[in-house]
Amino acid sequence: MLTVDFQTLDLRSGQTFLDVGCGEGRHTLAAYLKPGVRAVGIDLGLADLQTARSRIADMEPYAPEGHIEFLQGDATCLPFPDDHFDHVICSEVLEHIPNFIAVIGELNRVLKPGGNLCVSVPRAWPERICWWLSKDYYNTPGGHIRIFNPGFLRQEIHRQGLNCYRQHGAHALHVPYWWLRCLLWREGEKQSWVAAYHRLLVWDLMEQPALTRWIDKLCNPWMGKSVVMYFSKPRGVDQ
């Protein structure tokens, strides 16, 4: 399940791609499948990185020209030189990090002039309902510690000298799942209604039926669980 639209990023052969807060590597592995792309994922969580690395072998037959690696590291102090990557993404990460301003600065620092940055965060109003339905949703260790106003976040990234050229929503069908999950938090993921909705989401992901794709597309602009923003770094702009 991809949140970032790779067609908007326009990954090309010979380019470098960094996924900050890569988790189990869904976006990094998808970039690896693009011909000739050098993909790097970085995350603090060792268990997630081990899962991500275990999936590389399954992808290798479909990425004969690609390069991929997963590293452990801190998003507030990335272990890369300035102006190093053509594309940098940070998907569903900033809402977890206390010093998100430092992360934005690092994303900009390692991005080449002329490169693209993509950032996604949960949409504010569905997120507020999740917080209202369950305190455990945001009090869980490693959970969400803030709700972003997209305009505020876009302005903070603009302060770094980057220009927003596209914004869209994603995963509208996932919003009712998380409301249901929060409402029945104590019963857990195996509660019958929660499990049934999860099966629906998996079916939709695997089968891509026209009806649910149409519903998702119709609802994403105002109800998509994620708000996804794309920025370009002007050439000749220094830190």
Unreliable sequence segments: none
CATH names the topology of the largest domain as Rossmann fold
Reading off the top of the CATH hierarchy, the class of the largest domain is best stated as Alpha Beta
Largest sheet, in brief, is:
7 strands, mixed
User: Share of helix among residues?
Assistant: 40-55%
What class, by secondary structure content?
alpha/beta
Task: Return the average pLDDT rounded to an integer.
Answer: 95
Task: Sum up the overall morphology in one term.
Answer: globular
Widest beta sheet: strand line-up:
3-2-1-4-5-7-6
In total, the number of strands is: 7
Spell out the CATH superfamily of the largest domain. Answer: Vaccinia Virus protein VP39
For the CA atoms, what is the radius of gyration? 18 Å
Beta percentage is: 15-25%
Order of helices and strands: HEHEHHEEHEHHHEHHHE
Number of helices: 11
CATH architecture of the largest domain: 3-Layer(aba) Sandwich
**Overall tally of domains:** 2
**How far apart are the termini?**
34 Å
Quick take:
By secondary structure, the protein is of the alpha/beta class. Helices cover 41% and strands 21% of the residues.
